[in-house]
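SEQUENCE-TO-STRUCTURE ENTRY
===========================
What this section holds: a protein sequence and its matching fold, both as plain text.
Question of interest: how does this chain fold, as expressed in C-alpha cells?
***
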Amino acid sequence: MDPVMTEREPFAVLGVQTQIKRGSETPELYAGVWKQFESHRHEIELLSIEKRYFGVNFPTRQEDVTDYLAGMMVPDDTPVPEGLVKRTVSDGQFAVFKCPVEAIGETYRHIFTVWLPEAPVQFDPGVPVFEEYPEETSENPIRIHIPVRKKT
C-alpha cells in the first residue's frame, strides 16, 4: 500500500466539529459526528464548492486531543451559519492513501505502524490529517491525506 505524494494548497471546510481524545476513537463516535453533519448537510451543500466531504483532524494544544471537523469545502469568504464551524486546512505535502470506506481504521493502522516508520519522510504533526470522501463512497475509494515533511 504505497501512497501518492502530493502538494495541497490551503482550503476552507465548513461543517460540525467535536473534540476527540486519542484512544476513544470508535466507528460509533465518527458515525455520530457524521450524523450531526447530516442534520446540516443541505445548508452546507448550498455553500460548498463541490460534492466531496472531508473529515479533518486538526491538532490542538493537547497532544492526545484533536478537533474533528466533518464538512465540505467552501470558499474562504463563506459566512459561517449558526451552529457550524469553518476552519482552514493548511497547505503542505501529503502522502495520500486510497482505501474503501470500510477499511479506514485498518488503513490508518498500516500507515502509522508499517509505512511511516520505513518511509523516506516523517509525519508533520502541525498540519491536519484528513479524509476526502467522494459523493458515492460505496463505488469509490476514500483518500486519506497524511501530512509529511523531510526527515530530520
